[in-house]
Amino acid sequence: MNFVFIGFPWLLVLLHLALLIYVCWVKRSEPAEATFWLLVVALIPAGGIVLYLFFGITRVDRVDRRIRRLRGSDWSGCDDESELDWPERVRGMLRDFRPSSEVACLLHNRTLDRIFPTSLPVGGNRLELLRDGSSVYPRMLEDIRSARSTIRLQSFILMSDEVGMLILRALEEKAAEGVDVKILFDSLGSFKSYFSRFFRQCLFSRKCGFEIQEFSKLNLLAPWRFQLRNHRKLLIVDGRIAYSGGINISVENTRPATLPPSRYIHDLHCRITGPVVALFTSSFFRDWSYTTGKNLSEVVSPDDYPSPEPCGNDVVRVLAGGPGDTYQGTRQFFFATVALARRSLTIITPYLVPGSAFIDALCLAAARGVEVKIIVPQHNNHFYVDMAARNFYPVLLRRGVRIFEKTGIFSHTKALLVDREWGIMGSSNCDSRSFRLNFELDFCFEGGDFVGAMEEQIEVELNQSVELSLRDVGKYPFYQRFISGCCALLSPIL
Q1: Who wins on pLDDT, 461 or 484?
Q2: 86-89 own/partner pairs: CB under 8 Å, 24+ apart
Q3: Quick one: which of 90, 349, 461, 490 is 20 to 30 A from 358 by CA?
Q4: 413/428 Cα distance (integer angstroms)
Q5: How far is CA 340 from the centre of its chain?
Q6: How far apart are the C-alpha atoms of 44 and 46, rounded to whole Å?
Q7: Phi-psi region for residue 469, left (φ > 0), alpha (ψ -120 to 50) or beta?
Q8: Residues 375, 389 contacting (CB under 8 angstroms)
Q9: Is residue 227 a contact partner of residue 194, using CB atoms and an 8 Å limit?
Q10: Is 231 within 8 Å of 438 (Cβ atoms)?
C-alpha cells in the first residue's frame, strides 16, 4: 500500500510531463499557442489539463477527413453528365456567368483563386445591403412566406425569443404546406434556446414538420469538438434568394423596449439574388452533410439548384473558411486584403485580436502609404476581448494605422473595403477563432453597385465614431493597461 501511495504522485507527474511533451509536438507549428498552453498546463496542473482538453485540442485533421469522405468524389469530373456529383454540376451551371477576363485577371482575383480554388467569381448578381435586424427580419419573413419549394436556414445563434419564434412559426407553416425546410444551428451559440419548450419539441420530437439539426453537440468523449463552432449565417429560399452577413436570429438585433440598450446590437446583412446563390447552397449542404453524417449526394435536392438567371451587375465569390473547406481561409484572405491594398483599406470588426503577425502586416501596409482605418465598437459585449484588443492600439497608432471607436450601441458589423473597388463581408471576425477554428462564411464583392453602398455605409460608421490618438491611449490608467496585457495573453483562444 505504501508503494502504491508513494508511486501515485509520481504517476501524475509523469502524465503531466507527457502532456507537456504532447503539447510541444502538436502545437509545434504555432509557437505562440504552444507557449500559452505550456504555461497553462504547467502552472495549473489539474485544471490546465481539463482546459486543454476542451480548448486546446482541435483535431481539425479528423474533421477534414470526415467532411471529404462524406463529399465522395467532389470536383473529380466525369465524362457522363448524369454521373457528375453535385459540386461539379454546379460549376457547369455557372459556367456562363463567369466574369470577363479583365476582371478575372485582376490581382486580387488571381490571389483568391489560389486560396479558394473551388470557389470562383460569379457575375450577374444583385446585392442589397440591409442594416440591423429591424430591416432584415421583415424581408426574411416576406421571402419565407413566398417560398414554393425549399428553405434552408443556418445560424450561429438561433434564439427562441420573439424574433426566433416568429421565424420558426413561419417555417412550421411553410413545412405544413409541403415546402422542404432544413434548419442548422450551432449548439453552443444557441444554448439558451434549449430552455424553450417549442424549440425542444422541434429538435427532439420532430413535431414541427421540418428538419432541424444541431452542429457540434457537446460530447465528453470528444471534448475537442467544443472548439469547432459553426459561425455561419445563411438563409436560402427556393435556391434563388440568399441572406448572408453578420446578423444572427435574435431579438437583440431589433432594439426592443423590453431590453436595456446595453444589449442592443448594430449589424449588417445582405440580400443576394443571382447565379451565385447556388454556391451559398453548396456551402449549406456541406455543413448539413457533416452534421447528419450523410453523403452529399443523399441530402441535395434538385429543387435547390434551379436554372440560374442574371439579376444584376455585382461579381461575387463565396469564401467558405474552416475545416473541410479552406482551412484558415479566413486568415489567408485577411492577410491578402492587407497585402493587395494599394491606396486604402478599411476594416470594420467587433473583435480585434488577430495575433501579432497580422498587426505587423497592418503596420507594414501603413508604412508603404496605404490609408488603413479600423472601426471597432467603443462598447464591447465581451470585456476581455475588448481589453485584449486595446493592448495592440499603441503599436498600431505609432505605425500610422487609424483606429475609430464607434459610439452608441454595440456594433457587431464585419466588413472590409479595399481601394474603394472591392471588398469582403460576412461572418468572420478579425480574431484568432475566426482565423483558425470557426466555420465561417463570407463573400467577396466587386464590379457593381454594392461597392458604392458599402462605401456609403462606412462613411456612416465613421461619422458615428471617435478617432483615437496616441495621447488618448496614453491616458489609460495603469490598472487598465495591466488588465489589457493579461487579456492579450489569451489571444490564441479568443
Answers
A1: 461
A2: 86/282, 86/285, 86/296, 86/297, 86/300, 86/305, 87/118, 87/282, 87/296, 89/305
A3: 461
A4: 10
A5: 22
A6: 6
A7: beta
A8: no
A9: no
A10: yes
Phi (first) and psi of residue 365, to 5 degrees: -65, -45
Q: And the C-alpha cell for 255?
A: 432594439
Whether the Cβ atoms of residue 250 and residue 265 lie closer than 8 Å to each other: yes
Residue 105 has, within 13 A of its CA and on its CB side, a CA count of: 3
Kindly report the pTM of this predicted structure.
0.87
Q: How far is CA 386 from the centre of its chain?
A: 19
What does the alpha-carbon distance between residue 184 and residue 210 come to, in Å, rounded to a whole number? 11
Neighbours of 166 (CB within 10 A): 15
Q: What is the mean pLDDT of residues 309-337?
A: 91
Name residues whose C-beta falls within 8 Å of residue 79's C-beta, 6 or more positions apart in sequence: none
- The cell for 478 is 495603469
- Tell me the pairing of strands 352-353 and 402-406: unpaired
Cell numbers describing residue 81:
453528365
Q: What is the DSSP code (8-state) at residue 52?
A: I
Non-local (6+) Cβ contacts of 86 within 8 A are 282, 285, 296, 297, 300, 305
pLDDT of residue 152: 97
Determine the Cα–Cα distance for residues 263 and 252; give it in Å rounded to an integer. 6
**Cα–Cα distance for residue pair 31/134, rounded to 1 Å:** 44
CA distance 377 to 112: 29
Q: Please return the burial class of 301, using the count of CB atoms within 10 Å of its CB with bins 0-12, 13-18 and 19+.
A: middle
SS3 134: helix
All cell numbers assigned to 462: 465613421
State the Cα–Cα distance between residues 480 and 2, nearest whole angstrom: 51
If 0-12 CB within 10 Å is exposed, 13-18 middle and 19+ buried, where does residue 231 land?
buried
